[in-house]
Design goal:
With 420 residues, the protein is mostly beta strands. It has three helices and 31 strands. A four-stranded antiparallel β-sheet has the order 4-3-6-7. Strands 8-31-30-29 form a four-stranded antiparallel β-sheet, with no helix packed on it. A hairpin with a 7-residue loop joins strand 3 and strand 4.
């Protein structure tokens, strides 16, 4: 049975807009004729909050028709278009607000993308002679994160982490090595070779570091986790290298690992369809899960991350995200199989931004990153299949630290780094 679970896990690794409804405003022919002559409003101010993805419009209406004065309402449509594309402006939101001087409107509706440049335009809904190409006011919005750098020339990387100095470690999975790069993406050194012996790896995947910059490796095909101190790798000091496993429930194709500041080691035990946690000060292990779709089960989880209070798991085969406390008490879950907002096709990477209470998910077969708050509410997403910055081909492992998101863009054989 262990072999079957491992085959299932490997199979998962191989795999692994907005809809616009009709306008709520209905005018008869005479009303349309009257409304179409109204001049556009004068924009007084606009504020965009990149962190919260809220934007706030403030404008001064021009003279309104008697019809609108009687209604004491103004009707506006907000459009958006992605910069550098030929796609037409699409409706972002239709708004009904009381007339005033000035008019104010704040929206917290999710922006169409978490990455990239967008133009937003505001049009009075009653100004029917205007077209999307000549709307009266345009603003520029840049998404949740900015592209910083990429590391190319890799071989199916499925693990990435940054240490306290910003140095980047990559699991170069198909070459069975761990590679170290500077914070600017320049190659530094490499560790290991293919095998099952000391200082060897076989298909290494998820990575983590502790507060001392010790590196932890999910050595998947060797069914173990390795920890090593980079500065001691070539010294012959055996204290800088150790093997981590659970003798009571041996690891089976571990794919990801999270190490928290309080010493907890949590592992996505993919082949066992489980998660396992060990405190660094104790030999005791806490295990959770078996193969299945019940709330207590997993199907080949490939991604995991944790902080001082949470463990979040990418339950890959069930296309869902599951949140636990550090004692493995289940708190919530979200997601179903699909391509819509908040849906997943074999999610395989998780990263927690504790400061902003955000959870990043690599939605692998949808070739995108989705961002949720701690309640599982989608707040941003970006990506499509491609090779440009912000595009992905089967992204897998994620890591977040120092206001940066590191993405193992596995199908493109590269790492992409984004920053707030």
């Amino acid at each position: 049975m262990k072999g079957l679970y491992k085959l299932f896990a490997i199979f998962l690794l191989g795999l692994a807009m907005f809809s616009c409804t009709s306008s709520p405003f209905n005018f008869d022919t005479e009303e349309i004729a009257e409304l179409s002559v109204i001049e556009p409003p004068e924009i007084a101010a606009i504020t965009l909050n990149k962190a919260s993805q809220e934007f706030h419009f403030e404008w001064i209406p021009t003279e309104l028709s008697d019809l609108l004065k009687d209604l004491s309402l103004s009707y506006y449509t907000i459009y958006y278009q992605k910069k550098g594309t030929l796609s037409p402006f699409e409706i972002y939101e239709e708004v009904v607000i009381p007339s005033g001087n000035p008019v104010q409107f704040s929206s917290t509706k999710m922006l169409p993308d978490g990455f990239g440049d967008y133009y937003f335009q505001v049009q009075p809904l009653y100004n029917l002679n205007e077209t999307a190409a000549s709307l009266p006011y345009e603003i520029h919005y840049q998404g949740l994160m900015d592209f910083e750098l990429e590391i190319t020339g890799l071989s199916n990387p499925q693990g990435v982490v940054a240490d306290s100095s910003g140095s980047i470690y990559v699991a170069n999975t198909d070459k069975h090595q761990i590679l170290k790069f500077t914070s600017s993406g320049s190659y530094d050194t490499g560790y290991g070779s293919k095998g099952s012996g000391t200082k060897q790896f076989h298909s290494p995947k998820g990575l983590s570091v502790d507060t001392n910059d010790t590196v932890f490796v999910a050595d998947a095909n060797n069914d173990r986790v390795i920890s090593f101190v980079p500065t001691l790798w070539n010294t012959g000091d055996s204290s800088g290298f150790s093997i981590i496993n659970n003798s009571g429930k041996p690891l089976n194709y571990p794919s990801d690992i999270a190490k928290t500041s309080d010493g907890l080691i949590t592992i996505a035990d993919t082949g066992n369809s489980a998660i396992q946690t060990q405190a660094s000060t104790s030999s005791a292990w806490l295990s959770q899960g078996s193969f299945g779709s019940l709330s207590t089960q997993f199907k080949g989880p490939l991604g995991i991350d944790s902080d001082a209070s949470l463990i979040v798991v990418a339950d890959t085969g069930n296309s869902r995200i599951v949140k636990y406390d550090t004692n493995h008490n289940r708190l919530s879950q979200w997601g179903v199989f699909g391509s819509g907002y908040g849906h997943f096709k074999f999610p395989s990477g998780i990263a927690i931004d504790s400061d902003n209470q955000r959870i990043f998910v690599s939605d692998t077969e949808n070739h995108r990153i989705q961002v949720f708050n701690y309640d599982g509410v989608l707040i941003a997403l970006w990506g499509m299949q491609g090779t440009d910055p912000g595009e992905f081909t089967r992204p897998t492992a994620l890591h977040f630290s120092n206001s940066k998101l590191y993405v193992a863009d596995s199908g493109n054989n590269r790492i992409q780094v984004f920053k707030y």
